[in-house]
């Protein structure tokens, strides 16, 4: 073997060493590098990041449309969307914020607002935006986007709760229409419930969901609102459920389970589309899922307002939602609010909506995916006679009407600091009630003790 | 002692004139250089442990005595032992049912998986195509927890396979995952089933190491299969059993993925365990202080349980 020239060996050795040094350095530099937020050179565009849970399918496409439109028409400020699944959204907010890489614009579930405000993540809306939000949205949507009376963002999708019912099962039981009072609800539930000889549920009269915190708590809080009760006091420092209204809701649910008209063991969200549940309380988004799932059988689905304890009672239900807010760590808050106003308050013409039919881009976006915003005027334009916006003609679905009407009287979900934990504690005690571990009184007292301890923490 | 100086050499070294001292200094420099090189070689491993073990451990310790919402490092607020006292305060659910559930879940899983895997491993040891059987029993290990959890969840449901079998036998349906009395045992069965594969693998290897001559001697003495199992197989399997017992218990104390898929800790707190509560406190409620305190409590529990297991097996003459 011919020995290599000393010079060439030296040269080769040096290059390897350089490579060995350069590779980790390059990796380190790229890993530690700040996220791309524009070049920072004068004249170059500002790049805003928007982090949402619109991670896949039509939601992602629906948001990307207006963002592309903004980018095409605005040279100075560009927007880049980032998305994660909803289940990872809060964690992603935390991790990115702690790492100094929080997005400029955040799209949180309003339940987390108290937690995010307490942690100093959300920037209050500037006065002109706050005024615009208060003026343009339903009280429930504004309440959900506010913490301690201050508005922190533009409400996006808003969900209200109503009673879904199966018309065919009601007809078979000789009933004309959905219940309007709790007494009628119970009678309907008992008349339509059926079980086989082994105790397996064939038809639930009234479905009670244990799928997750939101569905379990949502239906109970909708009934609580209808009874004039509240989960958390107005100042957000204590629970208010241990009161006659709370007691009435818990007694109602307990009676339904004990009598066999409800079976919390059955997944309501699978059983209802299969025609095995007569009635269930859920949010408006479900219509969008039921339609493709049930096909022709969707014609058997009806939606009515949440029944009231008494026929002459005042209507109320629960409302939940998301909002778009600006990160306190954003270097370009003014540009971020400018974009949010364009997306959420700037009106565009809607084809087929008749004369003067203009709505915000966000309203058009939400209705196109079968959801609603807290802008009642937009929703009427989009869901009215001429408004057939969105896939499958969401605008023509009469089942969306009760959710739209509920925008006027819905009560926002409490979003005080510790709201998520309070919600989970409520779910656990509701389940303990349904499974006979606790009586209604014990469950209410436990909730009061546990939730009071949580929401009263000042830190 | 290859490197030690012999007495003569030591005397010679002591008698070495001053002029020879530079040689000693050179040797010292060489050793120093070797030590530096050795540490340089160790540096990647040490850095790895520092970044992924020491640093998080230290951070968790700081957090366990602080309030932190998980967003800004500057907002860490020291509170002393408040988080620990909060975990055991009156009305807290951490000790009961959460920590109790954790121990029952781990204990039940180990007991079921160990008993099942000893029986299966002993059977496999007497069968043909042992590789095939081992592979079949190992399959749950390579299946994702989400898939395993969901399949079993459907099987447990009121109209599912298990209730179908009960109904076919003329029995009424059981709300396995919805009844607080049956939810935890039902999840324990699935965890044991899912983790038995690795135990079977270890135990079949342990069975192979038992000398055949023992069984031949027992057969000559007229010992029956039960006596052989209790007097020969089981005692000689003790090292493998210790390994399986310790590792399964550790896994059981820390796992929550199956529970989150099947019951989410419910109904109520019937299947809530410490690891799931820690996860919720940190990532859902933004209470990293309580989560870290719970993690340290769980660490102490795991340590104590492991020490007790090792002590029991050592008393019986086995070493980990």
From TrEMBL, chain A:
<protein>
    <submittedName>
        <fullName>Uncharacterized protein</fullName>
    </submittedName>
</protein>
<dbReference type="GO" id="GO:0015768">
    <property type="term" value="P:maltose transport"/>
</dbReference>
<dbReference type="Pfam" id="PF01547">
    <property type="entry name" value="SBP_bac_1"/>
</dbReference>
<comment type="similarity">
    <text>Belongs to the bacterial solute-binding protein 1 family.</text>
</comment>
<dbReference type="GO" id="GO:0042956">
    <property type="term" value="P:maltodextrin transmembrane transport"/>
</dbReference>
<dbReference type="GO" id="GO:0055052">
    <property type="term" value="C:ATP-binding cassette (ABC) transporter complex, substrate-binding subunit-containing"/>
</dbReference>
<dbReference type="GO" id="GO:1901982">
    <property type="term" value="F:maltose binding"/>
</dbReference>
<keyword id="KW-0813">Transport</keyword>
<dbReference type="InterPro" id="IPR006059">
    <property type="entry name" value="SBP"/>
</dbReference>
<keyword id="KW-0732">Signal</keyword>
Automatic annotation (TrEMBL), chain B:
<comment type="similarity">
    <text>Belongs to the binding-protein-dependent transport system permease family.</text>
</comment>
<keyword id="KW-0812">Transmembrane</keyword>
<feature type="transmembrane region" description="Helical">
    <location>
        <begin position="183"/>
        <end position="207"/>
    </location>
</feature>
<feature type="transmembrane region" description="Helical">
    <location>
        <begin position="103"/>
        <end position="124"/>
    </location>
</feature>
<dbReference type="GO" id="GO:0005886">
    <property type="term" value="C:plasma membrane"/>
</dbReference>
<dbReference type="InterPro" id="IPR000515">
    <property type="entry name" value="MetI-like"/>
</dbReference>
<dbReference type="InterPro" id="IPR051393">
    <property type="entry name" value="ABC_transporter_permease"/>
</dbReference>
<keyword id="KW-0472">Membrane</keyword>
<feature type="transmembrane region" description="Helical">
    <location>
        <begin position="36"/>
        <end position="63"/>
    </location>
</feature>
<feature type="transmembrane region" description="Helical">
    <location>
        <begin position="293"/>
        <end position="313"/>
    </location>
</feature>
<keyword id="KW-1133">Transmembrane helix</keyword>
<feature type="region of interest" description="Disordered">
    <location>
        <begin position="1"/>
        <end position="26"/>
    </location>
</feature>
<keyword id="KW-1003">Cell membrane</keyword>
<protein>
    <submittedName>
        <fullName>ABC transporter permease</fullName>
    </submittedName>
</protein>
<feature type="compositionally biased region" description="Low complexity">
    <location>
        <begin position="1"/>
        <end position="23"/>
    </location>
</feature>
<feature type="transmembrane region" description="Helical">
    <location>
        <begin position="241"/>
        <end position="262"/>
    </location>
</feature>
<feature type="transmembrane region" description="Helical">
    <location>
        <begin position="136"/>
        <end position="156"/>
    </location>
</feature>
<dbReference type="Pfam" id="PF00528">
    <property type="entry name" value="BPD_transp_1"/>
</dbReference>
<keyword id="KW-0813">Transport</keyword>
<feature type="domain" description="ABC transmembrane type-1">
    <location>
        <begin position="99"/>
        <end position="309"/>
    </location>
</feature>
<dbReference type="InterPro" id="IPR035906">
    <property type="entry name" value="MetI-like_sf"/>
</dbReference>
<dbReference type="GO" id="GO:0055085">
    <property type="term" value="P:transmembrane transport"/>
</dbReference>
């Amino acid at each position: 073997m011919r020995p290599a020239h000393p010079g060439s060996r030296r040269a080769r050795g040096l290059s390897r060493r350089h490579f060995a040094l350069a590779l980790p350095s390059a990796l380190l530099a790229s890993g530690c590098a700040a996220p791309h937020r524009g070049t920072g050179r004068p004249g170059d565009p500002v790049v805003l990041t928007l982090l949402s849970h619109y991670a896949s399918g039509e939601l992602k496409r629906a948001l990307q449309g207006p963002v592309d439109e903004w980018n095409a028409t605005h040279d100075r400020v560009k927007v880049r969307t980032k998305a994660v699944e909803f289940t990872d959204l809060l964690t992603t907010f935390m991790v990115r914020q702690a790492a100094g890489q929080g997005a400029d614009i955040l799209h949180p579930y309003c339940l987390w607002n108290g937690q995010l405000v307490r942690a100093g993540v959300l920037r209050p809306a500037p006065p002109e935006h706050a005024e615009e939000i208060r003026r343009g949205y339903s009280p429930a949507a504004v309440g959900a986007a506010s913490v301690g009376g201050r508005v922190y963002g533009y409400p996006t999708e808003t969900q209200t709760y109503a009673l879904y019912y199966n018309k065919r099962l009601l007809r078979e039981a000789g009933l004309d229409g959905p219940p309007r009072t709790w007494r009628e609800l119970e009678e309907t539930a008992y008349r339509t419930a059926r079980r086989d000889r082994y105790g397996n549920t064939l038809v639930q009269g009234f479905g009670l969901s244990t799928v997750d915190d939101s569905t379990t708590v949502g239906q109970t809080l909708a009934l609580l609102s209808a009874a004039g009760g509240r989960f958390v006091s107005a100042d957000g420092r204590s629970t208010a459920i241990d009161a006659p209204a709370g007691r009435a809701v818990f007694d109602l649910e307990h009676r339904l389970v004990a009598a066999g008209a409800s079976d919390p063991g059955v997944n309501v969200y699978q059983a209802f589309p299969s025609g095995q549940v007569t009635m269930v309380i859920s949010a408006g988004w479900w219509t969008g899922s039921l339609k493709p799932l049930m096909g022709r059988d969707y014609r058997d689905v009806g939606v009515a307002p949440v029944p009231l304890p008494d026929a002459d009672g005042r209507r109320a239900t629960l409302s939940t939602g998301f909002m778009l807010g600006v990160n306190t760590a954003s270097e370009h808050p003014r540009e971020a609010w400018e974009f949010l106003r364009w997306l959420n308050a700037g009106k565009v013409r809607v084809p087929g909506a008749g004369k003067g039919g203009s709505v915000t881009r966000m309203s058009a976006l939400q209705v196109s995916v079968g959801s609603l915003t807290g802008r009642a005027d937009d929703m009427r334009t989009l869901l009215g006679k001429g408004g057939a916006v969105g896939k499958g003609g969401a605008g023509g679905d009469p089942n969306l009407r009760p959710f739209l009407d509920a925008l006027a009287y819905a009560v926002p979900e409490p979003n005080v600091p510790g709201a998520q934990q309070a919600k989970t504690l409520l779910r656990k005690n509701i389940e303990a009630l349904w499974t006979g571990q606790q009586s209604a009184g014990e469950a209410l007292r436990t909730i009061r003790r546990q939730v009071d301890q949580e929401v009263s923490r000042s830190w | 002692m290859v490197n030690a100086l012999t007495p003569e050499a030591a005397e010679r070294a002591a008698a070495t004139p001053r002029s020879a001292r530079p040689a000693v200094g050179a040797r010292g420099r060489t050793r120093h250089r070797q030590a530096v090189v050795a540490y340089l070689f160790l540096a990647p491993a040490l850095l790895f442990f520092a970044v992924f073990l020491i640093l998080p451990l230290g951070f968790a310790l700081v957090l366990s005595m602080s309030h932190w919402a998980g967003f800004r490092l500057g907002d860490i607020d020291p509170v002393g032992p408040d988080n620990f006292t909060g975990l055991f305060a009156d009305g807290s659910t951490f000790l009961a049912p959460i920590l109790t559930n954790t121990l029952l879940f781990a204990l039940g899983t180990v007991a079921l998986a160990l008993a099942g895997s000893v029986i299966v491993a002993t059977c496999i040891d007497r069968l043909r195509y042992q590789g095939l059987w081992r592979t079949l029993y190992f399959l749950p290990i390579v299946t994702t927890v989400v898939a395993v959890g969901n399949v079993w969840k459907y099987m447990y449901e009121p109209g599912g396979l298990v209730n179908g079998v009960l109904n076919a036998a003329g029995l009424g349906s059981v709300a396995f995952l919805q009844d607080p009395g049956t939810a935890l045992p039902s999840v324990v069965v699935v965890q044991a089933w899912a983790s038995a594969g690795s135990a079977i693998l270890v135990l079949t290897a342990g069975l192979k190491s038992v000398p055949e001559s023992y069984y031949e001697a027992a057969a000559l003495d007229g010992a029956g299969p039960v006596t052989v199992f209790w007097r020969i197989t089981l005692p000689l399997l003790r090292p493998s059993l210790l390994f399986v017992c310790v590792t399964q218990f550790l896994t059981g104390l820390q796992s929550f993925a199956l529970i989150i898929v099947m019951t989410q800790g419910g109904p109520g707190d019937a299947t809530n365990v410490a690891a799931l509560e820690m996860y919720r406190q940190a990532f859902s409620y933004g209470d990293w202080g309580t989560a870290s305190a719970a993690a340290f409590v769980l660490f102490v529990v795991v340590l104590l349980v492991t020490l007790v297991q090792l002590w029991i097996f050592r008393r019986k003459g086995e070493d980990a």
